[in-house]
From TrEMBL, chain B:
The keyword Nucleotide-binding applies. CDD domains: ABC_NikE_OppD_transporters (cd03257). This is ATP-binding cassette domain-containing protein. One of its GO terms (biological process) is peptide transport. It is a peripheral membrane protein. It is found in: Cell inner membrane. Its main location: membrane.
């Protein structure tokens, strides 16, 4: 483990054991997170991006799922080898997480102040009074006005944007080294989303927290991430610095995603007609059957026999840019 | 008749009463829609955009007469349907159909896909028996579903396929107007593109009028011809798509456009105008201009004077005191 990386995920595989068979939700995913860096993980529903995050924190439901392979090293320690008590000391303290829907992840019967102070007391052991001071300080930090009054309020008394600020306040209350944000702005209106994203980036600068930003939204990725992992069907298909990813998307799936999104910053009409969006034909594969070859092959215009038979390894194409595709040369030629 | 708008709404108001106290008397009203007017021609898409609680979905439900309007007028192909009883509304129902956001909860899970699409044909006495089957099969093909899928139940379809099914059902009775409320918001982008393409093809083919409701500005820019921006129950700006995106005149439109993330890391916009605070409650909308509490350019007059929606350039309507008709606009910054 290099000292630069705070988190190293290697060949992570998480399976769900269902009546319909074994679902390979995460199927051998590796990535690093450098200290203070923002890493984006992007992909569509079911690609495994949330399960990856939950697996890092060992929060997947034990009745139905298990981490079947790989390792997660945090600050030099293998998280898989820790006891549940040791893991609890890391969650919410060294690695914190915020979720999409703040209403369901906040406790409705506790005040905001209590929920922040609880986390502070649990992890630092300071007296309750000091923890409440910390709670007020955190609400100021996330720019909730009138913190003195707000710490007495319950989640239902706050707007959606303020609830997400409160979630961020809880998550950052013990100065974590890593913040995992799973679709943190998806449930919010766009003007509120802008406020929350700006807040997260500002706090990252101020506190030096590394962020894993999980989202389906390429716009959010472009505005927040420094490096990006693209996932499809439980696998990493591309990884690149954000500028390189958008300047030269290389995996056919990444390209497909980028062309499928209508653009806000370009005129949609060509000679008065609305152009067709580029579709990605078909749908994502079911993950409860083993996928031989490249998972994207059935929807890919470049796919060959080899793609259907043999899974492509991740190959570096330029500095920091890696792609899992047999046909990279042809794809780049087609650009 | 042909120059009549397919759908016209005049000064539409929909208030929901709030009851409270011991006797459950009416103590107030949520002013969900408060004086909205627009018209949509054949073959045209009017986009209705705004954030949660702005009233855009209530407009959709009210023009479908799923909600009774408090006041105002709704005209379908020139015929006033505002106060028609459900029975009298029946012949007009065929002309206005809807596609909902969530294709999971809007399709009956106990019916086969073929029944779902064929049922309206029978209800409106358009076709029965073998002819109905034939028509339903043709609709399946038109929206990109296989004929064999007619015998399946909705849970066997993916999200995108369900939305195709919802579109086939809406199309089955040859409507003039389709109200589409966030029809692609629940879909992944790769599937979203398929459904948007289908909607555009069908519109061009049948010259359908769309009232397209969405919070997604990029989708709006792609599919709409004209766009109305709503805030707290009012239209604050209504313009041709091109004009709206190149020269937004209302400060709220400007803020919406600035806030939407753009998938281009080179254009990261730091220091953009970010609106402070939240949308006020539609039960207690602010006095004067409803946007003045969040407006970075608000004048003292904005607190008292409620600006009307006026046409400041051909086809470009805006409700802002800084944008008087016929006069020089007061500069924003």
């Amino acid at each position: 483990m290099t000292a630069m990386n705070i988190l190293e995920v290697r060949d992570l595989a998480t399976h769900f054991f269902t009546l319909d068979g074994v679902v390979r939700a995460v199927d051998g995913v590796s990535f690093d997170l450098a200290r203070g860096e923002t890493l984006g993980i992007v992909g569509e529903s079911g690609c495994g991006k949330s399960v990856t995050a939950l697996s890092i924190l060992r929060l997947i439901p034990p009745e139905t799922s298990r981490i079947v392979g790989g390792s997660v090293r945090f600050d030099g320690r293998d998280l898989a080898a820790l006891s549940e008590a040791e893991m609890r000391a890391i969650r919410g303290h060294r690695i914190a997480m915020i979720f999409q829907e703040p209403m369901t992840s906040l406790n409705p019967v506790l005040t905001i102040g209590t929920q922040i102070a609880e986390n502070v007391v649990r992890h630092t052991g300071v007296p309750w009074r000091a923890a409440l001071d910390r709670a007020r300080e955190m609400l100021d930090l996330v720019k909730i006005a009138d913190a003195r009054r707000r710490i007495e309020e319950y989640p239902h008394q706050l707007s959606g944007g303020m609830r997400q600020r409160a979630m961020i306040a809880i998550a950052l209350s013990c100065n974590p080294q890593v913040l995992i944000a799973d679709e943190p702005t998806t449930a919010l209106d766009v003007t509120i989303q802008a406020q929350i994203l700006d807040l997260m980036l500002e706090l990252k600068e101020k506190l030096g927290t590394a962020i894993i930003m999980i989202t389906h939204d390429l716009g959010v990725i472009a505005e927040t991430a420094e490096r990006v992992v693209v996932m499809y069907a439980g696998r990493k298909v591309e990884e690149a610095p954000v500028e390189a990813l958008f300047a030269q998307p290389t995996h056919p799936y990444t390209r497909g995603l980028m062309h499928a999104v209508p653009r806000l910053d370009a005129d949609a009409e060509i000679a008065g007609r609305r152009p067709r969006l580029q579709e990605i034909p078909g749908i994502v594969p079911a993950l409860n059957r083993p996928i031989a070859g490249c998972a994207f092959a059935p929807r890919c215009g470049f796919a060959t026999e080899r793609c259907r038979a043999e899974a492509p390894p991740l190959v570096s194409t330029s500095a920091g840019h890696a792609v899992a595709c047999w046909e990279t040369a042809r794809v780049l030629e087609a650009a | 008749m042909s120059d009549q708008p397919s759908l016209e709404v005049r000064d539409l108001v929909k208030h929901f009463p709030i009851h409270g106290g011991l006797l459950q008397r009416q103590t107030g009203a949520v002013q969900a829609v408060d004086g909205v007017s627009f018209a949509i021609r054949r073959g045209e898409t009017l986009g209705l955009v705004g954030e949660s609680g702005c009233g855009k979905s209530t407009v959709g439900k009210t023009v479908l007469k799923l909600l009774e309007p408090t006041s105002g007028q709704i005209l379908i192909g020139g015929a006033d349907v505002t106060h028609l009883s459900p029975r009298a509304m029946w012949p007009h129902r065929r002309r206005i159909q809807t596609v909902f956001q969530d294709p999971y909860s809007s399709l009956n899970p106990r019916l086969t896909a073929g029944t779902i699409v064929g049922e309206p044909l029978e209800n409106f006495d358009i076709a029965r028996g073998a002819e109905k089957e034939e028509r339903a099969a043709a609709l399946f093909q038109r929206v990109g579903l296989r004929r064999e899928a007619m015998t399946r139940f909705t849970h066997e379809f993916s999200g995108g396929q369900r939305q195709r099914l919802g579109i086939a059902k809406a199309l089955s009775v040859n409507p003039d107007v389709i109200v589409a409320d966030e029809p692609v918001s629940a879909l992944d982008v790769s599937v979203q593109a398929q459904v948007l393409n289908l909607l555009i093809d069908l519109q061009d083919e049948y010259r359908l009028a769309y009232l397209f409701i969405s919070h997604d500005l990029a989708v709006m820019r792609h599919i709409s011809h004209r766009i109305a921006v709503m805030y707290l129950g009012r239209i604050v700006e209504l313009a041709d798509k091109r004009a709206l995106f190149s020269t937004p005149l209302h400060p709220y439109t400007e803020a919406l456009l600035a806030a939407a993330p753009i998938p281009d890391p080179v254009r990261k916009r730091r220091g953009r105008v970010i609106l402070k605070g939240d949308v006020p409650s539609p039960a207690r909308p602010p006095s004067g201009c409803r946007f003045h509490t969040r407006c970075p350019y608000a004048l003292p007059a904005c607190r008292q004077d409620d600006p009307p929606l006026i046409e400041v350039a051909p086809g470009h309507h805006v409700a802002c005191l800084r944008r008087p008709a016929g006069g020089d606009p007061v500069p924003l910054s």
